[in-house]
Specification:
Shape: globular
Protein name: Class I SAM-dependent methyltransferase
InterPro entries: Diverse_substrate_MTase, Methyltransf_11, SAM-dependent_MTases_sf
Order of helices and strands: EHHEHEHEEHEHEHEE
Mean pLDDT: 89
Low-confidence stretches: none
CATH topology: Rossmann fold
Family: Belongs to the methyltransferase superfamily.
Pfam families: Methyltransf_11
Radius of gyration: 16 Å
CATH architecture: 3-Layer(aba) Sandwich
GO molecular function, one term: methyltransferase activity
């Protein structure tokens, strides 16, 4: 684990700015699903007055609670925790959906998002060969460059590999469960989904 210039970097952190740019103006309440040790939740707190982060991993939540911030860190299951429906202006999730049933996770996020709110996801999916080989090789090259110049921070949270859902399957799920969502495949072995919930 290396950190250069005092800043952490890995594939997930690389895409945090994409999440933060999606935060809607005037957002009051945000939820970070699968918050781990809370890095993204703390970044969200710079833009949103009330932020909650939820994760099933107790050591990660314990680590997050050591930071002097006012984020509400919850040890629990996002799929069953008794959040109020339509209670968040923004829901963010990075590298979490492959830990749970992706369809159930997307539906739960949709349920908890208020009308007009924004869902911003960065996730991992499974490559299919040989179709994804050129993109994956390009990602390895770019990743090697970033690691050489920025170092690489290994997060302490549990990992799941390989992801159970492929990139095309994830795109199809997003289109079905979040009509009108924007799905994008990224070079560093990630995809993103952004979606604004329609007003009632």
């Amino acid at each position: 684990m290396t950190v250069k210039n005092g800043r952490r970097w890995n594939h997930n952190i690389h895409y945090h700015p994409r999440i933060l740019r999606a935060v809607p103006d005037g957002a009051q309440r945000a939820l970070d699903v699968g918050c781990g040790e809370g890095m993204l939740a703390r970044e969200l707190r710079q833009a949103v007055p009330h932020v909650a982060g939820i994760d099933l991993d107790a050591p990660s939540i314990d680590h997050a609670r050591r930071y002097p911030d006012d984020v509400d860190y919850i040890l629990g299951d996002f799929l069953t925790h008794p959040f109020e429906p339509a209670s968040f202006d923004v829901i963010a999730s990075v590298a979490t959906l492959h830990h749970i049933d992706a369809a159930a996770g997307l539906a739960r996020m949709r349920h908890l998002l208020r009308p007009g709110g924004v869902l911003a996801i960065v996730g991992l999916a499974r490559s299919t060969m040989p179709n994804d080989l050129p993109r994956d090789l390009g990602g390895v090259v770019i990743s090697t460059f970033h690691r050489a110049t920025k170092g690489h921070w290994e997060h302490p949270s549990p990992t799941v590999w390989p992801p159970p859902v492929t990139y095309p399957q994830m795109r199809a799920l997003a289109a079905e469960i979040l009509p009108g969502s924007q799905y994008r495949r990224h070079l560093l072995l990630r995809y993103s989904i952004t979606w604004r919930k329609p007003q009632d």
